[in-house]
Specification:
elongated; alpha+beta; disordered N terminus; 22% helix; Thrombin, subunit H; Pdz3 Domain; 6-stranded antiparallel barrel; 6-stranded antiparallel beta barrel; transmembrane helix; 3 domains; 20 strands; 2-alkenal reductase
């Protein structure tokens, strides 16, 4: 009996071992792609590629526009140092720009380079090159920097177009450095024309172009191009609750850029047209109940004094003059007054419509350069 029991246990162990091996084989065969009672599956192969044919004429033209224009676009990197010694803080910024001429002048936004201690410019085929600030016009959010080192290849100034003849609906293209992603092309249309864009000093940039081409942080200062690859604007701002593109971008019109940039290169700043008055800020004007530009001071020897403008004297309760129009264009604040004087230009004679108490009169006055 003892011997028989040992033989039976051995047989049972052998059967169990065979069953385990069989189960393991079946599991392996199943998970490795085999099939019960059939041949193994064929290995997976890539799908056949469908021929697409030629690119459309529109695609070809956009590709050509980008390849032609990208060498004229610049990518701008800035460093600003604040504080002193152990409390110094270095902040970095990035923006876009474009080559203006073969002397290394690069146009960008004023807010891209304002306050920067170090400016570097990267062109299409170069490492970042050092640059210096040549001129800045905060009233138009425009600035010019110049390369300090000569790039390896010849500079390719961007072709300049016009903005006065733009039409809503025509195609536009933006090339820039959004979020630090250089050589980024976006496209859209002219969404609206004749917009005004407020700037930090209370003035407004006139005739701004509105576009739905995607413009994001880092696009500032880059070119807005028409379908011929010509510069029609400088991308400068977006209207967005999130700070990213919402399809409402704004560009400074090239007709204005083409007037401002040569003066920045030549003088470093723009003439500051004026008539020699100090005006009430908006809060004081509201307290006075004034709709227009209240004259609060007149500079001795200025055109305003020669024309007989009278300032308010709040201490003695004496009324002054309120300017309500320039050359028959209404002005409601100092920004609009400055815009009208700039439109007329230094040396021009303008007609002011002035209210003093219950009287209204017209005054002829010469526009001068307040910084000249």
């Amino acid at each position: 009996m003892k011997t028989l029991k040992q033989k039976g246990a051995s047989a049972s162990s052998l059967i169990a071992f065979v069953l385990i091996v069989g189960v393991l084989y079946l599991l392996y065969h199943n998970f490795s792609g085999g099939q019960f009672g059939g041949s193994p599956q064929q290995p997976a192969k890539p799908r056949l590629v469908e021929p697409r044919g030629d690119l459309s004429s529109t695609e070809k033209s956009v590709i050509e526009l980008f390849n032609t224009s990208k060498a004229s676009v610049a990518y701008i990197f800035t460093e600003s140092v604040q504080g002193q010694l152990f409390f110094r803080r270095v902040s970095e910024g990035a923006g876009s720009g474009f080559i203006w001429d073969d002397k290394g002048h690069i146009v960008t936004n004023a807010h891209v380079v304002r306050g920067a201690n170090k400016i570097r410019v990267q062109l299409d085929d170069s490492d970042p090159l050092p640059a210096r600030l040549v001129g800045i016009a905060p009233s138009y959010d425009l600035a010019v920097v110049q390369l300090l080192d000569k790039p390896k290849s010849a500079l390719r100034p961007i072709p300049v177009g016009t903005s006065h003849d733009l039409q809503v609906g025509q195609s536009v293209f933006a090339i820039g450095n959004p979020f630090g992603l250089s050589k980024t092309l976006t496209s859209g249309i002219v969404s609206a024309l004749g917009r005004t864009l407020p700037v930090d000093n209370g003035r407004e940039i006139p005739n701004v172009i509105q576009t739905d081409a995607a413009i994001n942080p880092g696009n500032s200062g880059g070119p807005l191009l028409d379908s011929a690859g010509r510069l029609i604007g400088v991308n400068t701002a977006i209207l967005s609750g999130s700070g990213s593109s919402a399809g409402v971008g704004f560009a400074i019109p090239v007709d204005l850029v083409n007037k401002v940039v040569p003066q920045l290169i030549e003088r470093g700043a723009l003439p500051r047209p004026g008539i020699g008055i100090a005006v009430a800020d908006e809060s004081l004007a509201m307290r006075l109940g004034v709709r227009g530009v209240a004259v609060m001071g007149v500079e001795p020897g200025s055109p305003a004094e020669k024309a007989g403008l009278v300032p308010f004297d709040l201490q003695n309760g004496r009324l002054g003059d309120i300017i309500i129009a320039v050359n028959r264009h209404p002005v409601a604040n100092s920004g609009q007054l400055s815009s009208e004087l700039e439109k007329a230009g230094v040396g021009a004679t303008v007609k002011l419509l002035v209210i003093h108490g219950d009287e209204t009169r017209e005054v002829e006055i010469q526009v001068v350069d307040l910084d000249g």
